[in-house]
Amino acid sequence: MEKRWSYEYTVLIIHWFIWGFVAADRLLVAYLFPMILPALKMSFTQAGFLMSILGIVWGITAISGGGLSDKIGRKKIIIPATVIFSLTSWATGLARSFLQISFIRAIMGGAEGSYYPCAVATIAEEAKPSRRGLMIGLHQTGFPVFGLFLAPIYATQIASVYGWRWAFYLTLIPGIILAGVHWLLIREPKSTAERIEARKKGLAHKIVSEEGVHVTAGSVLKFRNIILSIFISICFMTWLWVFTSFGTLYLTKVQNMQMTTAGFVMSGWGIGGLIGMFLLSAISDRTGRRWTLFIGSVLGGLATLWFAFGGSSPTTLFCAMFFVGIFGSGVWPLFLSIIPSETVPFGLAGLAIGLPTGIGELIGAGVLPTVGGMLADAYGLGAAMILAGVSPLVAAVFALFMIETAPVKKAVLKTARA
User: Which DSSP letter does residue 187 get?
Assistant: First the structure.
């Protein structure tokens, strides 16, 4: 028991740090847009496109990388991906034009998109079923801690003293170190290790569901939860990337805040997200995934609209961002990781997680930030904030049709039927 516990948390801690640096590397550019846009002579629409191109490539590689990792193994995707996204984060600081920075960020999207489904599938398989939600929720807190709390403070402070390029240069070292630590300490999960071993011996390897049904990659889209997760992902990807693309600009251009004050306000999102991802995921282990997802989506959307229309006080806006984090960010592990991984056998978890991640990125992160930028150019930055706020409310409707997957809740329902 002690050995299992130790390894389970070793996997969690290493991936928590990697995922945190994925978030920071991806979001630094948005926090630094007030400096990058004039330096590279970019418009709001181009800023939105810069976020979109990363999302488009992320989406493609989340599906392909997740599916490929089911066949060749998780580690063969995770380690190269970590090295590449760290290198491209560093290279962002070298960009001298909109074309150059777009190309660099596209490569970054490919690496980060490949990493995510492989990492979550690994954690889901290694976690004890009764605390799978908690474990994945803890992993996901790396995003708000690094990307939404530390990154805006780090970016605005470093850029104010040394210039925006140095904020990117310094991100290379931790990523390379983490890739090496993963290679040394993390083994291939059982489901993919068995598949690799069977292929070496020339044997067929069937993936079977809990009901004893043979499941193939082609049948993953036949599961209702996967389809619903895709639609919810599109909504929340719209929310996240429109909000992060234009949130700092909204504070500096519309609310006339200094960069450092805007960084403080945006950091409230990270604090709330840290609490929400841990709390809502843990609660869902006991009360179920479906209702937790529905309530969190509604409250996340309302908190985002509060940010858009709640006045100009930095303290008030910080509080709004705190609740945006608790509920808006808090539900992400549910629809993007926990529910897909529990819906299919672990041997197909990479693809099951990759589909909502990938399609959500392609549409919600790939297209909608550019739409948000066009709305901002045409009607003002407030229009982009409204688009972000409405999206989680639409996701809440889809959440109502989810099939419950929490092991404890399923056992209770099964007992009640018997």
Answer: P
Nearest to 395 by CA among 229, 221, 222: 229
Both structure tokens of 68: 């490929």
Protein fold of 2-417: Growth Hormone; Chain: A; (1.20.1250)
pLDDT of residue 2: 46
For the whole prediction, is pTM greater than 0.85?
no
Structure tokens at 396: 């809440």
Q: Where does the pLDDT of residue 225 fall: very low under 50, low under 70, confident under 90, or very high at 90 and above? A: very high
Give the residue-averaged pLDDT of 233-244.
90
Residue type, 313: S
The one-letter code for the residue type at 145 is V
Tell whether the model's pLDDT for residue 1 goes beyond 50: no
Helix 33-40 to helix 224-249 angle, to the nearest 10 degrees? 70
Q: Is the pLDDT reported for residue 22 higher than 90?
A: yes
Residues with Cβ < 8 Å from 364, sequence gap 6 or more? 55, 233, 234, 235, 236, 237, 238, 239, 240, 241, 391
C-alpha span between 2 and 7 (Å, rounded): 9
Query: pLDDT band for position 150 (50/70/90)?
Result: confident
What tokens were used for 287? Answer: 């009360």
Q: Supply the DSSP symbol for 208.
A: B
pLDDT grade, residue 415 (50/70/90)? low
Q: How far apart are CA 296 and CA 271, in angstroms?
A: 16
Residues 317, 321, 326, 327: is their CA dihedral positive or negative?
positive
Q: Where are the alpha helices (DSSP H) in 324-418?
A: 332-333, 339-343, 349-360, 368-379, 381-399, 407-417
Residue 418 CA from chain centroid, whole number: 39
Tokens standing for residue 162: 């040394």
> Quick check: 231 and 398 in contact, CB under 8 A?
yes
